[in-house]
Design a protein that fits this description.
Elements: E1 2-6, H1 23-51, H2 54-80, H3 95-123, H4 130-152, H5 159-188, H6 192-220, H7 230-238, E2 243-255, E3 258-267, H8 273-288, E4 292-299
Parallel strand pairs: 3-4
Antiparallel strand pairs: 1-4, 2-3
């Protein structure tokens, strides 16, 4: 009998980051983007109130959520870096997912408000000054391009960093829509263009918010990571020489990019349990990028081992698909 775990820490590249990134560099780029966005947001609120532009105010509100997303990401990175202690056996790594989910829910709530206000202004449009809207939106495009560039240099495999990046990217498209609306108002005086731009911003918020809420929800519900099919994982384990059974296979994400797996594996009495466990771990790492595994490996005829053919509670190894055609997730 062999029981063991492999890869107790998340270290896909030795430090948990993509090449060229580190927690320190992530905090630097996130902090720089935060300062830039807060400064411009204050200007945009003032101009939006003076010009009476809902599009500018909705952009400013979205920029506030951008700033909040980045601030949450900074806090989450610090929390996630804390070592495991006490009852928190994985540390606080899921703080990043809480941050991402908060970003998604905030975007969805803002979608409802600006959607309602945009429709109301379509029905009864207030006067809006087009020139300040156009100039501010053009400046916003420049600011968001700079912020997008900064966040692109951070580790976007983290769902909370990706959430902040999506916030800013959405805001960039929103500023483009607002600039078009401002140009239309300057050239034609069509005041409803401002409300239409606000509705475009609301639609972009809805798309980004839904995506973040969905992905963070999958992690909280401990669904298998996207790109990893548990049936293919089971087939791959069964393809390892000497393995005759797989039971209670679980595969989930602890946090962004940190996949964990546990299973009860049965091997024939002709093979060593420990050696087969190492072979299974190596296969899971090479084929699926799963580095954190907890495997209980028994001989099939041990008193506490399961009897019968492969995965008696699941399927026979002979009935599972051949894994030569299985490729690791992208």
């Amino acid at each position: 009998m062999s029981r063991g775990s492999h890869g107790g820490a998340f270290e896909p590249n030795g430090d948990g980051h993509t090449p060229g990134t580190s927690p320190g560099s992530d905090r630097f780029w996130l902090g720089a983007a935060l300062v830039l966005l807060l400064g411009f947001m204050a200007v945009e609120v003032v101009v939006g109130l003076l010009a009476g532009s809902l599009a500018l105010l909705s952009d400013a509100a979205h920029m506030l959520t951008d700033a909040g997303a980045i601030a949450l990401a900074l806090v989450a990175i610090r929390l996630a870096a804390r070592p495991a202690r006490g009852g928190y056996t994985f540390g606080l790594k899921r703080a990043e997912i809480l941050s991402a989910q908060a970003n998604g829910i905030t975007l969805l709530l803002l979608t409802v408000y600006f959607g309602y206000e945009g429709v109301r202004r379509l029905v009864d449009p207030p006067p809006v000054e087009g020139l300040p809207v156009l100039v501010t939106a053009l400046a916003g495009i420049v600011v968001n391009l700079a912020a997008t560039w900064m966040l692109a240099r951070a580790d976007r495999r983290r769902l909370n960093v990706e959430g902040a990046f999506q916030h800013i990217l959405t805001d960039l498209f929103a500023f483009i829509a607002t600039a078009v609306a401002g140009l239309v108002m300057v050239l034609t005086g069509f005041a409803r263009a401002d409300a239409l731009a606000a509705l475009v911003v609301a639609a972009l918020m809805a798309k980004a918010g839904y995506g973040l809420a969905l992905e963070s929800g999958r992690i909280f519900l401990e669904a298998a990571p996207r790109g990893i099919d548990p049936q293919r994982v089971e087939a791959d384990i069964c393809s390892v020489t000497g393995v005759v059974g797989v039971h209670e296979l679980d595969v989930w994400e602890v946090t962004s990019g940190f996949t964990a797996l546990s299973a009860h594996v049965l091997v024939s009495t002709a093979h060593d349990c420990h050696e087969r466990r190492v072979a299974v771990e190596r296969s899971l790492s090479d084929r699926f990028g799963i580095h954190h595994t907890t495997l209980q490996v028994d001989h099939r005829d041990e008193p506490d081992g399961r009897t019968g053919s492969c995965a008696g509670a699941n399927a026979s190894c002979g009935d599972l698909p051949v894994t030569d055609s299985i490729s690791p997730p992208r």
